[in-house]
UniProtKB/TrEMBL annotation:
InterPro entries: Homeodomain-like_sf (IPR009057), HTH-type_Tx_Regulator (IPR050624), HTH_TetR (IPR001647)
GO molecular function: DNA binding
Identification of the protein by name: TetR/AcrR family transcriptional regulator
Swiss-Prot/TrEMBL keywords: DNA-binding
Residues annotated as domain HTH tetR-type: 6-66
Source organism (scientific name): Candidatus Companilactobacillus pullicola
A Pfam entry, by short name: TetR_N
DNA-binding region residue numbers: 29-48
Length: 183
């Protein structure tokens, strides 16, 4: 892929991220994305079929960013909490309460599953209580699904409370649960 191609694709992705900081996914049009990225419609369609395929790339981009920027995150839970705190408006605008046609949580669930799977194979993450639950399980894939379901439930709780639960409260509660279960 050429540098120009990479730069254009990244420009479109970051335009969508910027728009999702401002308004719900459902209210964003391809025209909005093109205006934000300073491209025309034909350029957009050269890279993406529609805004849903772009959203998939946005999630992948954010996942890569999340996995690559873990320097100060001690556990997966704190990593996810960091992501949600950094992207609170984004999370708010993809939440089901703002969509009539699209439930974007399955995509978010898929991202969390990928994070947990990647971390479960990372030697540096083996002291994480959540990872211990997975590695000590007779059925790691089922345990990953259980954990991700629980994390999605917590995100839904945060959404129901307008993301006004403190970062510390979220971390303490979630890590406490996983620490107790991993023993």
């Amino acid at each position: 892929m050429s540098q120009v191609t990479k730069r254009t694709e990244k420009s479109i992705i970051t335009a969508m991220i910027s728009l999702l900081q401002k308004k719900p996914f459902e209210k964003i049009t391809v025209g909005d994305i093109c205006d934000e990225a300073l491209i025309n419609h034909s350029t957009f369609y050269r890279y993406f079929n529609d805004k849903y395929s772009l959203l998939h790339s946005v999630f992948s981009y954010l996942l890569d960013d999340l996995l690559n920027n873990t320097s100060n995150a001690k556990t997966i839970v704190s990593q996810i909490a960091d992501f949600m705190e950094k992207n609170a408006k984004f999370m708010h605008h993809i939440s089901p309460q703002y969509q009539t046609k699209a439930n974007l949580y399955p995509e978010f669930r898929s991202i969390l599953r990928d994070i947990v799977k990647a971390k479960s194979k990372d030697p540096e993450s083996q002291n994480d209580p959540l990872i211990k639950m997975i590695t000590n399980s007779d059925t790691p894939e089922l345990m990953i699904s259980f954990i991700v379901g629980g994390l999605i439930g917590l995100v839904e709780y945060l959404e129901d409370n307008d993301f006004n639960v403190s970062y510390e409260k979220f971390i303490d509660f979630t890590e406490g649960i996983f620490a107790k279960w991993s023993k």
